Amino acid sequence: MKSLIYQSLVQRKQQHKKSFAVLIDPDKVNDSSLHQLIEIAVAANVDYFFVGGSLVVSHYMDECVQYIKQHCNIPVILFPGSPSQVTAHADALLYLSLISGRNPELLIGQHVISAPIVKQSGLEVMPTGYMVIDGGAPTTVSYISNAAPLPSDKKEIAMCTAMAGEMLGMKLIYMDAGSGAKKSISEEMIQQVASCIEVPLIVGGGIVDPEKAYLNCKAGADVIVVGNAIEKDPVLIKEMAAAIHQVSVLKAN
Taking the model in full, what pTM does it have? Predict the structure, then answer.
């Protein structure tokens, strides 16, 4: 099975290069708004597009991914909220296992259902330990998953959960405060988790300004994911990208 995207993530981590992923919810874009996003993202040297959402009720998933692929060379990684959110037109798939919860459906059940479709798609599959952290407000993912998020002040629990995920074979750890979170994940928790795992660490949720993105990278995040803030102000992409990539330059020096 091909692993070009995963290799790029690992290589960037080894080179101390921080990555910026713009999260696109197919329910919230059309060809016109997507074109604007792509233009800004290309100019800002965005590293990845994540596509998906907890609920995708439109039929724009396939068209959305195809439109991105036709208009730029930025890799497209699926961030699915359900087995139905799979399209072969993307480059890779975050195969999410909700290791922060105890709902068996999201630990293995949905994977059993989606396995034949995912296998047939030919997508690069990246097993991902998904950890939902309390962002101070109810989120769609918490409601859909029927699982409580990890407490935002319990960094030891987050650390042990990430360690367990890595030892179970997860190739990525994704810490998420959820879309529209009132508070993002603390630098202390990110640092604690980053210090105990070797796989790339993705962080998202509640990151609304470049300074927070910068601090998360300094704390140990390898990939920063921003969606909600960009939906409100696409111009933020340029500032976010500059802040995130600046950490890479500082590390190199």
Answer: 0.96
